[in-house]
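Translate sequence into structure tokens.
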Amino acid sequence: MFGSIWGYFYTSFLRYWLKWFIRQVTGKCELQRICAGYKPGAPRTTKAEYSLKNSKSKLLRAAVDVEEDGLEKHLDLVMREKNVKTQRDPTFKVNLKLCLVQITGYRNLFTSVEELRKENFDSDKVQHEEMLLKLWDLLMPEVKLESRVTKQWGDIGFQGDDPKTDFRGMGMLGLTNLVFFSENYTEEARQVLSHANHPKLGYSYAIVGINLTEMAYSLLKSGALKPHFYNTVSGRPQLQHLHQLFCYLVYKFDKFWVEEEPESIMEFNHYREKFHDNIKIQLLDPAVALTMTDSPRSN
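Result follows.
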């Protein structure tokens, strides 16, 4: 109760006067101090985002939603409003622009991810069918599918004879993630599949992959992935960067599962949540970067 009252008092009253006082002493506005005082990446961009969103200025608040083609013009308006002269602070505009590129890029990434998630797998679409068959060929290069609908799909972790029913929750995002991992980290993907097919510690590889796609999606939607993307992508994050994060989650979850040695697959939800909590804790670190650096082939 006291925490929420203090938070309201600080953001509504105290913060404004504190910023005003520091500006009188330093001669620099809060955004200038952030851009000059924090390292590029999450330490700087998260501070700038907070400052902009909590500004009393409508113009500054609007900066986090500006489109790419209007970015330069909006930056000039921000500098005019904050009375920042390029001659006195030549790096400010460059640094703030990078922050805004990352902030708006994150928003646009979620839009792209949401569109892919809402796209249902359609057997009548050649591209969808080709992608599904490509997944099989990448994971099982020495085994030929007997038919399009077959129990063989269970060998790579699908539940039924036709995988299309398993993509309902995450749509084409789930399949695209699985293919990306198998195509870009083929050796690692086959290794993970071999662990998934272990007689005692096994799990449904494809189903778990779709489940981890949902984890990545929920972390993106909540904003928890901002520090990761701000640290690992210097410009606008793209779909491929979300796919790369998925690769990290699959690879790390497999290691986590094998090390934990669960009694059976029935304990999956428990260990899934434990793994999810571990990831969320890592994402609280301003220096976080969830990359496949400890895999045999890093990106």
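Note: The mean pLDDT is 90.
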